[in-house]
Description:
Largest sheet: 4 strands, antiparallel
CATH architecture of the largest domain: 2-Layer Sandwich
Number of helices: 18
CATH class of the largest domain: Alpha Beta
Number of strands: 8
Helix content: 40-55%
Amino acid sequence: xxxxxxxxxxxxxxxxxxxxxxxxxxxxxxxxxxxxxxxxxxxxxxxxxxxxxxxxxxxxxxxxxxxxxxxxxxxxxxxxxxxxxxxxxxxxxxxxxxxxxxxxxxxxxxxxxxxxxxxxxxxxxxxxxxxxxxxxxxxxxxxxxxxxxxxxxxxxxxxxxxxxxxxxxxxxxxxxxxxxxxxxxxxxxxxxxxxxxxxxxxxxxxxxxxxxxxxxxxxxxxxxxxxxxxxxxxxxxxxxxxxxxxxxxxxxxxxxxxxxxxxxxxxxxxxxxxxxxxxxxxxxxxxxxxxxxxxxxxxxxxxxxxxxxxxxxxxxxxxxxxxxxxxxxxxxxxxxxxxxxxxxxxxxxxxxxxxxxxxxxxxxxxxxxxxxxxxxxx
Length: 378
């Protein structure tokens, strides 16, 4: 009887050992199998250790695909388990702050859909700037515009609150121009003054010492006194004036290049004559005049007074054809709130044929064109 009990005890002990061995074998096999599968998906040894530490093997293996973004998060110790779906959803960026920015956006409260859009439309520097701002619930409405600026986000929101019926495209455009400030309220100093695309307005100022290169005298046939433009603008003007002449249309230059000092004297004269408020509807402060760029002219028809130019046949031709020569009517009717100046049918600005044609076809101002297409390329 004693032997039977001893034999039974041994059998039970052996069975227990076998069961333990089977369990350990399965555990080891499963452990190694998971590692094998993760390795097959191209995850590194460090990443696999982190995956197992967070017990995410089943989740990641089920995905059946490698994520370089997830690898980056796992191997730089910035991994946050709750953000794993975000890591899978975002294409990798070779940027030291990449994972930090993902985590920061999630911490602020942006959901996956918005974070994906943010990374689609903004560069790393812009995203980092966004992480320093409070949550904007409708951020996706803003970032789809190529000319959206993160630094202006708070200004967009404030301007939108004051202009609730204005289209968002105009909100962003107006703020980028500076229209959320009073005229001359926030001035940027121009640094692209030698380009034909230079923008001067009530928010952008030229250096006092700036004189454009390659100034040439305008043909006396179209100028009663000595006037100058830059060579490219002068040649385009004379070609346009010659073509008009063939159609029995005649224009004269009334004003062209003006120095900073000349504009200062002219501005002061008008202020003394009409008062500052009225004068600034038609005269620029020194440094803000397009005439200083050497790319702008004031013209008149031979048989019409200067202020009646838009009643002339010459104006009708200019209105429909100036863009073919690279010129635009810089201060068009109905755009006074954008340009800050009264309607000036006689004031032409050279910007090149492509830009002039776009502005003509889309009926916008150069201010709008500049902040939409040129400013971010500088």
